[in-house]
Amino acid sequence: MIFDINADAQCIWSYCPPGSYTDLYEQSVCRRCRSGWYQIRTGQTTCIRYGLGEFCPNAKQLPQLCPARTYADLYEQVKCHSCPKGYYNIQPSATYCTKCLLDVECSNSSISPRPCANGLLSILQVTNLNCIVF
Predict the structure, then answer these.
(1) What span, in angstroms and rounded, lies between the C-alpha atoms of 80 and 94?
(2) From 45, 114, 117, 122, which residue has the greatest number of CB atoms within 10 Å?
(3) Rounded distance, CA 49 to CA 57, Å?
C-alpha cells in the first residue's frame, strides 16, 4: 500500500497496480517490476521472477512458454531465442535446442528430424540441413 496526502491534507491509501509493488512501510511511490519480473495482482510487496523456458514482455501479465523452435536458457528474458541453424526443438518451454545429426534431414527447427533415405546424407548448407546424395 502507498500513501499520499490530498489537497485537504488528508492521507489517502491506495494499492500498487499490477506490474508494480511496494516493499517499504509508508512508501509513497510504487516501484515498477524490473525487466524479467512480473506481478499480476494489486497491492503486492514483491515481483516474481519467471523461469527458464519462459518469456514475459509485459510485467503486468503472466509469463508465456517459449514456443517450439525457440528456447530461453537464462532467467529474466523478455523474448525467446530461435534455435540456430543445424539445431531443433519440438517442445514448448525449452531451455536448449538439440543438435541435428548428419544422417537426418533437419530443415525445420520446429519438427523432429527425419532420417535420410538409404544412400543419402545431410550436410549443412547455406539455408538448412537437407538430405543429398553424397
Answers:
(1) 9
(2) 122
(3) 12
